[in-house]
Amino acid sequence: MIGTITAEWNVLPCYDSVGMKSIIVGTAGHIDHGKTALVKALTGIDADRLQEEKRRGITIDLGFAHMELPRTNGEVLRLGFVDVPGHERFVRNMLAGVGGIDVVLLVIAADESIKPQTREHFDILQLIGVKRGITVLTKSDTVDRETLEVVRLEIEEFLRGTFLEGDPIVAVSSLSGAGLDDLKREILQVAATVETRNSNASARLPIDRVFTMKGFGTVVTGTLISGTIQKEQELEVFPAGQIVRVRGVQVHGQAAEAAVAGQRTALNLAGASTDDLTRGMTLGPTGTFAATRSVDVQLRLLPSAPRALKNRARVHFHCQTMETVAEIVLHDEKQLSPGKEEFARIRLPEPTLLLPGDRFIIRQFSPVVTIGGGVILDSTPIGRASPAKKSMQILGGSDRESILKFRIERRNTDGAEVTHLVKETGWTRGLIESLLAKPVKDGQIVRLGDMFLNVSPWEGLKHETIAGLAEFHSKNPLAGGISKEELRERVGMSAFVCQAVVQNLAQEKKAEIAGDLVRLPGRGVVMKDEEAESKKKIEEAFASAGLKVPALHDVLAGLKVDKIRAQKIVTLLLREKVLIKISDELVFHHRTLGQLRNLITGQKPKSPRIDVAQFKELTGVTRKYAIPLLEYLDRERVTKRVGDTREIL
Question: In this predicted structure, what is the pLDDT of residue 507?
Fold first, then answer.
């Protein structure tokens, strides 16, 4: 399915990639320098798939091919080729193809040497961080030996100080085949130094082609830059959020059970049409990542940029296979001069899936030329203001433990759940937990289930909680403690963190938990003599009244304490369940209600049902008391209303 898709999708044998290394090779270079001819000479596949490309004799869009090379150790090297257009009008298409390459073939024609798009393409390769490559001197059969050597010297000078300095320059002829065996040997040597992409990471497939194949439906292709995608797996389409199912997988034109990182991959999808998908979207695991409209980056402007980049300038932004117009907000400079670097925030018009470590290119808004690029440091910036340079230096460093500690610390008392850290970094849960194991053990980070909290705000929350409890007790001596919800609001923390703080303080004997109430150790209700006397009077008034209880306000009116303290005493009696409120107006002593329950259940052998009239006669109360009491018995599952009667349970 890479390049030409055969109709035998469903009968192609599954390909076992065990023991086979896969790398992506990309071409780069000026128009008509022989990139597509070179790919065809190596693979036998014509990467120009569009009719217009064949008619005009130039590459317009991305082309794809593949081949396998035997290695000296008996293994096989699997190569996926991405052939890019060289014309300046199609650099945007070129940019959509180079994001996932491992090795570049910098193609320079012997009869023309270095041209404008040679320079622009090479600038792009360096900006996106390509580290391995081979310079291929094509059309070597069109010039004499002396000219070939002159061009070789020009190329060596051009490459001085770059990642290709000192590497072989291979002269070839795609027509005669001269030099192709030498090139294959160099590819094998370079491939041996390429690190295998992480197939255990979360999967990401930036889409570079979308089309329909008869008999199969929607098909997308791309370079799997991380992770593994399997048949029947559900994936999320970013930024749309649509869920699709993988009906089939092809790797290098062969059906497979799964594709792994570093492979050119084609997926037959269910759940989406070609109208739903487009180049620039990304497939990833469901519920793992989040699209963003703002990223913090390290930005470098090319020395060849025509002018300084002003703060809040609009640029063409390219990352992986996506492109858009974005705004550059410089960290603390009014403009960025050519050849300089700066931290910046890039604001995007629409959400897209970007992660730290992703490389990007910016092109001038008009005229459209490549002016710079860089690396994304944070795809989930917190707050509107640009972060401090020290923060950006941490995020741009290689110490992953420090990066995680910073991300946890910046969330302060909210803490960071593992799912947050996965979304922010693109790292797996297992990797994050292993990186944080030591700082948790050393007491630098506190782990609360799936949440991590920096020790400083954690200790601060504990201190504020104790202070809040002390303040509450001093102002509310008649309260048995403060509710957890009120305590949470006072200190300012989430319900989850509040529960963890309270439990920790209780374990340390610095707080006590009584149901929903929290208090300092030994700090229960503190009553003055008149308050204790009032409490006793209230309880006696309701205990002696039986079911014919007085109005609460009448009882409180006869107390020596003021109305506010009287209400607090009642609240205390209700919390202690000495008194039980069964309606807005009626309060009963708990012993009275217990006796009522026994009375009603004792009637069941005589009659399994009771109506209002029978209840009034049995208890001696009026309808004013009877209805609320029967409703209370219903709630307590002593009785069950059936029409106009109650069934005794």
Answer: 92
pLDDT at 92: 64
In this structure, are residues 34 and 109 in contact, taking their beta carbons and an 8 Å threshold? Answer: yes
227 backbone φψ class: left, alpha, beta (φ>0; ψ -120 to 50) = left
Same domain, 228 and 365: no
What is the C-alpha separation between 210 and 330, in angstroms, rounded? 36
CA 646 to chain centre: 56
Assign residue 545 the CATH number of its domain: 1.10.10.10
Domain of 103, CATH number, reads 3.40.50.300
Highest-pLDDT range among 24-33, 274-283, 561-570, 623-632: 274-283
* Distance, CA of 91 to CA of 85 (rounded, Å): 7
CA distance 472 to 270: 59
Q: Answer with the one of 345, 362, 393 that is the final residue of a domain.
A: 393
User: What distance in Å separates the CA atoms of residue 243 and residue 231, rounded to the nearest whole number?
Assistant: 15
Residue found by looking up tokens 């199969």 in the block: 216
- What would the mean pLDDT of 226-243 be, rounded to a whole number? 95
- Mapping DSSP onto H, E and C, the string for 5-58 reads CCCCHHHCCCCCCCCEEEEEEEEECCCCCCHHHHHHHHHCCCCCCCHHHHHHCC
Is the domain of 92 the same as that of 184?
A: yes
Task: State pLDDT tens for residues 379-409.
Answer: 999 876 666 788 889 999 999 999 999 999 9
User: Range with the lowest mean pLDDT among 221-235, 525-539, 543-557?
Assistant: 525-539
The pTM (predicted TM-score) of the whole model is 0.75
106-115, 141-150, 183-192, 520-529 — which is least confidently predicted?
Answer: 520-529
Confidence of residue 1 (pLDDT cuts 50, 70, 90): very low
Report residue 641's pLDDT band, with 50, 70 and 90 as the boundaries: confident
Query: How would you class 231 by CB atoms within 10 Å of its CB: exposed for 0-12, middle for 13-18, buried for 19 or more?
Result: middle
- CA gyration radius, the chain: 37
Tell me the three state secondary structure of residue 328: strand
CATH at residue 216: 2.40.30.10
How far is the C-alpha of 134 from the C-alpha of 95, rounded, in Å? Answer: 19
How many whole angstroms separate alpha carbon 510 and alpha carbon 528? 26
Distances (CA, A) of 627 to 255, 415, 582, 640, 641: 74, 50, 11, 13, 12
**What's the pLDDT at 423?**
94
Q: Which residues are 205's β-sheet partners? A: 283
Residue 543 φ/ψ region, left for φ over 0, alpha for ψ in the -120 to 50 degree band, beta for the rest: alpha
Q: What are 298-314's pLDDT values in tens digits?
A: 999 999 999 999 999 99
Q: How far apart are alpha carbons 428 and 413 in whole angstroms? A: 24
Question: Does position 56 have pLDDT exceeding 60, yes or no?
Answer: no
- The last residue of a domain, from among 285, 319, 341: 285
Using DSSP's 3-state secondary structure scheme, residue 625 falls into helix
pLDDT above 50: residue 499: yes
For 632, the token pair is: 């209370």
State the DSSP string of 201-267.
SPPBEE--EEEEETTTEEEEEEE--BSEEETT-EEEEETT--EEEEEEEEETTEEESEEETTSEEEE
Count the neighbouring beta carbons within 10 Å of the beta carbon of residue 184: 17
Q: Are 54 and 48 in contact (CB under 8 A)?
A: yes
More confident residue, 217 or 87: 217
Contact 249, 258 (CB under 8 A): yes
Q: Which domain holds residue 334?
A: 292-393
